[in-house]
Design goal:
Elements (H helix, E strand, L loop, with lengths): L17 H9 L8 E6 L10 H15 L3 E6 L23 H10 L2 E9 L2 E2 L1 H11 L17 E7 L5 H15 L8 E4 L24 H24 L9 H6 L13
């Protein structure tokens, strides 16, 4: 069963490798109840110029073929100020598109953040996104848990300098701390050879594109994609996490989950 891609950015589309296509074709699991949001935090003003968007597209294509509803967002297509408040218009900014994007983040079962590497770090736009996600962390679901409980997340990192694992570590920690569940091997990326050189998807003299045939990158992208879907499906089937011991409302009311508290009454 095929899902649908809500937003398809213009630009180069990277096809799945034959092995990735075979994995998709052999799938018998129904993921059609899931939705995934891919947010590209490239510094490129246009999504069509983004190298990171190419690798995000591979993961999105595999999810779409498995029945997941997929949406891609290019962060710089929107005005999203830095800050840790739900709406920065209330804090001196003339415009803030985050509240509209938040509705999409909140609805998605899967979040994938894509970022380039600059000086070994994720992009400044990526940091803004994480800050804005943090700004919503006071919201709770109907079980009294973080609003991000029951959702899964991963990251896609590209560049032509070292830093994939460092950037993925930073992003994964932040998302886990907020309440997202991070599955095994929930990151992938491509950086090419050390030193100056082509970025992911750049065309070579012979017409090939950098990174498209890199088995390590395509393998990790495939594993990340399917692990995100598997875990999201399991969590959704279970109705998320049980709230014993992680119910913030109960804690605030005085229930300390096993710690003696004679003043508490259920």
């Amino acid at each position: 069963m095929l899902g649908r891609t809500v937003v398809i950015d213009e630009g180069i589309i990277m096809p799945l490798s034959p092995q990735q296509a075979r994995v998709c074709a052999a799938n018998t699991i129904d993921f059609s109840g899931l939705s995934a949001l891919f947010i590209n935090t490239s510094l490129k003003r246009s999504s069509g110029d983004s190298h990171t968007r190419l690798l995000l597209g591979v993961a999105g294509d595999m999810m779409q073929r498995a029945g997941v509803v997929v949406e891609h967002i290019h962060m710089l297509d929107h005005i999203i100020p830095p800050g840790v408040q739900p709406d920065m218009k209330e804090h001196g900014w003339d415009r803030d598109d985050w509240p509209k994007l938040w509705d999409k983040v909140r609805a998605a079962d899967i979040l994938v953040i894509g970022t380039p590497i600059w000086l070994g770090e994720e992009s400044s736009v990526c940091r803004v996104l994480i800050e804005r996600l943090y700004g919503m962390s006071g919201l709770l679901n109907d079980k009294g848990q973080s609003i991000y409980y029951g959702k899964v997340a991963g990251s896609v990192v590209t560049g032509n300098e070292d830093g994939i694992k460092h950037a993925a570590m930073t992003i994964s920690y932040a998302l886990s701390h907020l309440g997202y569940t991070i599955p095994p091997q929930a990151d992938c990326g491509w950086i090419g050879e050390a030193g100056p050189g082509p970025s992911y998807g750049d065309e070579s003299d012979d017409g090939t594109r950098a990174g498209f045939d890199n088995d390590f990158t395509q393998r990790n992208t495939t594993i990340m994609t399917w692990n995100l879907m598997h875990l999201a499906r399991m969590l959704k089937a279970l109705g998320g996490y049980d709230n014993h011991g992680n119910d913030r409302n109960a804690w605030k009311a005085g229930c300390h989950f096993g710690f003696e508290n004679p003043d508490y009454r259920s």
